[in-house]
Amino acid sequence: MSKKIRLGILGGGGDSLIGVLHRVASQINDNYEIVGAVFNPDFEANVAFAKEIDVPTNRIYKDFDTLVEEELKLPKEERIQVCSVLTPNFLHFPMAKKLLENGFHVICEKPMTTTYEEAKILQATLEKAKTVFAVTHTYTGYPMVRQMREMIKAGAIGKIHKVDAAYYQGWINSIIHDKAKRSTVWRLDPKKAGISSCMGDIGVHAFNMIEYTTGLTIKSILADFNYLYEDNQMDVDGTVLIRMDKHVKGVIRSSQVATGEENGLTIAIYGEKGGLRWEQENPNYLYVLSDDKPLQVYKPGHSYNSKLSLGGTKLPPGHPEGIFDSMANIYLGVARAIRGEKYNDGEFPTMMDGVRGLDFIESSVESNKKGNVWINLK
């Protein structure tokens, strides 16, 4: 019998970027085998896509409920062990909840749910299920982000006092200015995307990166959103001031209408002894800043890096690794957890990261609606 973990896929068919990212990432470290799926709500398209990527069609199901029902009929040693939920946002909660209730491990795209209330229900469900749950905040898988986390934990920059995170994209810019087009995009539909577009889709990544790298908790926020048009219900740009402690403050800047920007996630952490800066579009460079020393640049694969960073590096120094490798590191951590092996708590984002993310999204929307006031996170 194969020792690989049996993986099921929900969504991500056709030319879905997130679909190919997850499928490739699951294969990189040789830990998973895709054995069942519902790639597409149209069954014929579902089967055709399975054939296209060479996944056996005998466990390609017509819908999610059928997948759960039929898989539970199989012996435990044959059925899907973990499911990746790659569907539009509004399906995350019902799918993840049912999977947990039936004993499956779950790897879920973010945001984990569309409301904070749903996130708390899911958290309670997981506590009963006692299975593994990961939220794919992909960028936490980069070796240099993990190095940043470990250096801050070790006190390399001293006490933190300033945080600056930005996530700039421009892809909605070509859609938002056309009334007919913007009514057809699911990310601008609150029934499918939830209450936020920009902050819920990419701003939450910046939020997660701050808490992941610093080890600190964001306690309160003040948000100012831009919707651009009166008939548009979803934010496409926003700035959020954050307070982590009395003397630890910062800002999250997020936009989907930053003309010409591609995937500009950056994070800078400043402390009493130095600073650290990382950019997603140049992920193999971690910049170490100091008042009394020249700029230093850390790169993956070198022995000076932490065990957590080196554990996420597959190639010798000088061989660039990217977004597929980053996601693969999350899948690797989940595999260790499923198998009951020892792992670092920084290897994959958990249910708590998902709950925190929904708290941030709802609180930022509330802050903006109330006239840009400070809101305490729960």
From TrEMBL:
<feature type="domain" description="GFO/IDH/MocA-like oxidoreductase">
    <location>
        <begin position="145"/>
        <end position="277"/>
    </location>
</feature>
<dbReference type="GO" id="GO:0000166">
    <property type="term" value="F:nucleotide binding"/>
</dbReference>
<dbReference type="Pfam" id="PF22725">
    <property type="entry name" value="GFO_IDH_MocA_C3"/>
</dbReference>
<feature type="domain" description="Gfo/Idh/MocA-like oxidoreductase N-terminal">
    <location>
        <begin position="6"/>
        <end position="137"/>
    </location>
</feature>
<dbReference type="Pfam" id="PF01408">
    <property type="entry name" value="GFO_IDH_MocA"/>
</dbReference>
<dbReference type="InterPro" id="IPR000683">
    <property type="entry name" value="Gfo/Idh/MocA-like_OxRdtase_N"/>
</dbReference>
<protein>
    <submittedName>
        <fullName>Predicted dehydrogenase</fullName>
    </submittedName>
</protein>
<dbReference type="InterPro" id="IPR051317">
    <property type="entry name" value="Gfo/Idh/MocA_oxidoreduct"/>
</dbReference>
<dbReference type="InterPro" id="IPR036291">
    <property type="entry name" value="NAD(P)-bd_dom_sf"/>
</dbReference>
<dbReference type="InterPro" id="IPR055170">
    <property type="entry name" value="GFO_IDH_MocA-like_dom"/>
</dbReference>
